[in-house]
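Lab notebook, design round three. We kept the backbone fixed and only want residue identities now. Task for the bench partner: fill in a sequence for the structure below.
Input structure tokens:
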């Protein structure tokens, strides 16, 4: 059996981390088209010296706009790890309201 450790956030906590870091409102629920009583797992978020931001991150950073369901969260997690905002690892986002 393999045991995997995760950094666990409630979706509202992750919204707040992203809003504080990028200066714009963000909704995990909207971005991931998530439903009640689910968990989102993002595995192996690691620092990568060759990391290239996708265009969605730059648009979001500049004006806070993103398309619902564009799944920007993974890119934002990658970006925050690469800039040292959050630690590398596995992330679990708990969705429950």
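Proposed sequence:
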């Amino acid at each position: 059996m393999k045991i995997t450790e995760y950094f666990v956030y409630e979706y509202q906590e992750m919204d707040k981390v992203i809003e504080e870091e990028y200066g714009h409102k963000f909704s995990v629920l909207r971005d991931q088209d998530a439903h009640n009583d689910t968990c989102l797992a993002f595995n192996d978020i690691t620092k990568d010296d060759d990391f290239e931001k996708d265009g969605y991150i730059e648009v979001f950073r500049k004006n806070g706009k993103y398309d619902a369901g564009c799944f920007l969260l993974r890119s934002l997690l990658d970006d925050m790890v690469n800039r040292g905002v959050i630690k590398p690892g596995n992330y679990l986002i708990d969705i429950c309201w």
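Keep this in mind before ordering anything: The CA atoms of residues 81 and 88 lie 6 Å apart.
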